[in-house]
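Example 3.2
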Amino acid sequence: MLMNRDLRAVKNFDFLARSFARMQASGQQVNLQAVTGNMSREQKMWFCERFNQYCEEESRAAELEH
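Structure, written as tokens:
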């Protein structure tokens, strides 16, 4: 049961990281401090790594479009 809850939390964090990366790529300011303020240190590190990965993907996709 705990494992399922952890997996669900990871999927939710991944969805949020991807969504905020898309927001940033579209020109909206994303305040990572505000987004990750209530996360544990481990969650924050993981989230920021995923966010940065998705930002890079969004940047590459934008380059390919132009």
